[in-house]
Design brief:
This protein has about 190 residues and is an alpha/beta fold. Helices cover about 35% and strands about 20% of the residues. Helix 2 links the parallel strand 1 and strand 2.
């Protein structure tokens, strides 16, 4: 969120963050969004029935062109009207190292434990499964022999800060579209 707002402020991303929604009140993003003066809603999953949580998130999101998820660890069952308009960023090269409970350092620990030589990030359209849906773009980083979860996370995060704004630009420019379960990239002059 901070990276997207920075890109917006600098003029490299023609977008507006209309609302920030969190499923927890105790995360840094809530205070950071409030510090930026962004409308911020907390829909506490643990305090609501599953149905009330789903409806609460949908109501809080409201009418927007695009929903950008990041660090939202609760599964939001995406209403049909949002299909193809909800993106997520994940700190691994999906479909590997994704799914429920695969977030943050857990992802980087798993990549290192698997002995991978390449990692990275994935921006994808969301469906109603964790870390699943049509891939928009991926960026890679090498996994170095002396990497720790922290050092790998730092390099992946640098790429996330490039990838997410780029995916949003492609969407805003009409340069990506969904065909079935595949993202089609269109040339700039299309």
């Amino acid at each position: 969120m901070l990276n997207l707002q920075k890109c917006i402020t600098e003029g490299s991303l023609a977008a507006v963050i209309k609302v920030v929604v969190s499923s927890r009140s105790d995360v840094k993003g809530v205070q950071r969004s409030r510090d930026l003066g962004l409308p911020t809603f907390v829909v506490e999953r643990k305090r609501l029935s599953p149905e009330a949580f789903q409806q609460g998130v949908t109501d809080a999101v409201g009418e927007v062109d695009l929903v950008c998820m990041g660090g939202f660890l609760s599964l939001w069952h995406i209403p049909q009207r949002y299909y193809g308009r909800v993106m997520n960023i994940h700190p691994a090269l999906l479909p590997e190292f994704g799914g429920r409970a695969m977030y943050g350092h857990r992802v980087h620990e798993a990549v290192l434990a698997a002995g991978r030589t390449v990692s990275g990030c994935t921006v994808h359209f969301c469906d109603n499964d964790y870390d699943h849906g049509p891939i928009i773009l991926q960026r890679t980083v090498p996994v170095l022999p002396d990497d720790t979860p922290d050092s790998l996370a730092a390099r992946v995060f640098e790429q996330e800060c490039i990838a997410y704004p780029e995916a949003i630009r492609l969407f805003a420019q009409g340069r990506i579209r969904l065909e079935g379960n595949k993202v089609i990239h269109l040339p700039a002059d299309a």
